[in-house]
């Protein structure tokens, strides 16, 4: 065939046309299956959330029971410092010392009579005599919260790693 510019254009074979379906008529079964799968997944997540809520409520009840037991022990007349373990007292003392060195706790607020109990019962506990012996960078950032190994020096050098 010749057209306007007199070049020969070969005829291309006709392509079978496909019938176009509107987008609204997508396979209904596949949509239904997708919706059912998503609902099952959501229900599984809800079951897991319910289980964790039940576990947390049991833990809270346990903590409340221990708290009331401790309050009753403190309120009773026969409560003494002998019931508190020595390791608990030492950990509390060490934490207070770190807080005092960090300037978080006012040293005037603390009574020094509690220190005498620790010194009389445990001679192996040595308190640093010089305040400059502990560097501020070696003190934990949040003592007693499970992050005792994280110090200011560690946080400064974290980008270097």
Give structural notes.
The chain has 161 residues and is mainly α. It folds into two domains: 25-75; 81-156, no CATH class. Helix content is 49%, strand content 5%. The protein contains four helices and two strands, in the order αααββα. It has helices spanning 28-75, 86-102, 113-121, 152-156; strands spanning 140-142, 147-151. The chain has a two-stranded antiparallel sheet. β1 (140-142) and β2 (147-151) form a beta hairpin. The longest helix is centred in the N-terminal third of the chain and has 48 residues, at 28-75. It is elongated and about 110 Å long. The model is unreliable at 105-129 (pLDDT under 50).
Please summarize what this structure is:
This protein is mainly α and 161 residues long. Helix content is 49%, strand content 5%.
Strand content: under 5%
Helix fraction by DSSP (H/I, runs of at least 4)? 40-55%
Shape: elongated
What is the number of strand segments? 2
Helices and strands, with pairings:
Elements: H1 28-75, H2 86-102, H3 113-121, E1 140-142, E2 147-151, H4 152-156
Antiparallel strand pairs: 1-2
Quick tags:
5% strand; 4 helices; 2 domains; two-stranded antiparallel sheet; elongated; mainly alpha; 161 residues
